[in-house]
Amino acid sequence: MTDLSHPPLPGALPDKRQVAASFSRAASSYDSVAALQRDVGGELLGRLPSGFRPRRWLDLGCGTGYFSRALNTVFPQGHGVALDIAEGMLNHARPLGGAEHFVAGDAERMPLQDGCCELIFSSLAVQWCADFASVLNEAQRVLQPGGVMAFASLCVGTLDELRESWRAADGMVHVNRFRAFTAYQQLCAASGLRVVSLERRAHVVYYPDVRSLTHELKALGAHNLNPGRPGGLTGRARIVALVQAYEQFRQAKGLPATYQVVYGVLEKPL
User: Locate the Methyltransferase type domain: which residues (predicted)?
Assistant: First the structure.
């Protein structure tokens, strides 16, 4: 596994242009299979400080805008900006509303003014950012004093059942890599933002078969984007080996897929 507590090695995470293109292609199918994403974002909303009423908020990595619309409902007096690196997602989200502005941009270099937001909300987006320290630096710049950054991300241990099954099948890289939870701890502690809470929680989703899981990952745009991934079509023999290996994990509810979710709430000092 790759620990990204230090600057990442070249090729450790997917090229963000490939990430943007993959999620753009998935814009129309994303919401139909995003039950986990809705659960995680809902959990993150519930972790916002009690009584917090931001007048200006940013949905960072807004995707289809599901949580932009939720934020608009929760904070009707607020003004929202939805930002994503994937133009296809923004094109899907814009007609559905929720935010006043939909902006194409990179979380590591936000095209926003200093001190323009009281809340940065980011659910299952920053795991695609190789330089999370830059994301935190940008959050500190964009937030007003007393402002809050609430994020949910993925860490090492995510999709380990699929990773181990592929390793048994052919030993090649088929599953996206994520940074370690200790890296989140170190980077948040060094960010200059006050850590209100930071914890890891496992979410387990069950599937009737491997095909259902891999289809969902593709529909989300979150299938294998790693450098070093095998090119071309996956041979039938390898698929059979994958299915056989994954069956070792089967439980009464079906085949488990574990997502290790990091929930963080940070505050910019006054």
Answer: 58-151
